[in-house]
């Protein structure tokens, strides 16, 4: 276990001890009553210097906390002002402490310590800005932009798929926005298929595991949980800082919530700008109040820029207290070439697994509807099954697995039982996690998105549109950036099986309208979500923070 992870606790303990000493009663000789006599005498004799060094350390910490996005002159002035105010507050409090009275000497020590500490920190910052880098490679950065990407999981979710597309083949086309080649390394906080996918596409990747306590914190976690997780986060941040210095990274990029909390510490510590890619809706339905406060506060304090994946995501961040000037909305990007129709043999292979092909549901004339995504209650697969039950001629394919929690696994079992009930038996198949998602999307007639809560973006919807498959989607969140109702898809109210069933019947009964929705949907997706344009815009934001820093 890293020793560095306990540094914040040691600093807190030292600060608490110092305040306790400064604000506790004294005897008639003016010495503290809870220290041994000789220690109290030594402290009394060296009181000025102890105050000086204490405020010098405090000044350095305040300077770092103020952030690299503010000028050195401003930060030095703020350090001196805040240090002086703290000293005045401590001395003023001594009017009410038995045996104590304000000491002008302590004020002069605090002022001197704050000034010297602020100046030293400022000189260090200026030296780094002039190219004095930890490994002496200042000349290399002129030709390359080095980015350290952080992600909390080894699983392949929507945020991870977006990052995978972003970092693969980065040097190609990166000069358009940054003027430099881009070198990327991805640090994951857990191992899994994401690491394998990155390495398969030639991306430098390493795993630095997040401690068990921090890794176990969920979106519903409160203050107590995150307080217990602080040593884990701090320890991992220290290891990330070491890697940033080894690779001479210019920018830190966090791709998930826990990556933000670790990344903001690492970026501050290493003096690099942080870009956070926000893939979450910071709303009560998704995150506890403590989580929202912590994530928004971390971004406001430590991020040079926040990239939101939809208008809804940006609006939720700002409504939760996020700084509007940080935010740029950039949607997920996709390579349209990856969504071309596979060979007929591949489609037949997918369809051969379905029970109604030569099976118990022979003779049904209805469409095949597919729902794609992680099996978890808010993704709404149960709404999909209830809607299918209302459309006897329809058949359904559920693609996805329960990836993370016991609740998700219990939900997956509940879905299986519902699919085997008499009104659905033989009409629904749950195929689990699949790599051949594109082939499966082409194999179904309609892709359904039925999340019961607002979706930050709705990656599955854009993928289906790029496949040229019509979509029905829940009218909420980032979906509204993707689907124009009646033009590029059909929208229904979230969590409403009857409305979803009605939309299914409409697409089943009007094949010409179904084909038009698919055609217009693909055209809009190619125009709005092309990977090259999205990657270029994203690198422009990243390069801009480094140029400004």
Can you offer a commentary on this structure?
It is a single chain. Helix content is 51%, strand content 11%. By secondary structure, the chain is of the alpha/beta class. It has two domains: 144-215 and 227-333 and 532-547, 3-Layer(aba) Sandwich (Rossmann fold); 336-528, 3-Layer(aba) Sandwich (Rossmann fold), CATH 3.40.50.2000. Helix 3 crosses helix 4 (72-93) and helix 10 (223-247) crosses helix 11. The model is unreliable at 129-141, 172-177 and 358-364 (pLDDT under 50).
CATH architecture tag of the largest domain: 3-Layer(aba) Sandwich
Characterize the largest beta sheet: strand count, sense, and whether it forms a barrel: 7 strands, parallel
Helix coverage percent of residues? 40-55%
- What is the general shape? elongated
Arithmetic mean pLDDT: 83
Number of strands: 13
Measured distance between first and last alpha carbons: 33 Å
What is the number of helices?
Answer: 21
CATH superfamily of the largest domain: Glycogen Phosphorylase B
Question: Biggest sheet, strands in spatial order?
Answer: 3-2-1-4-5-6-7
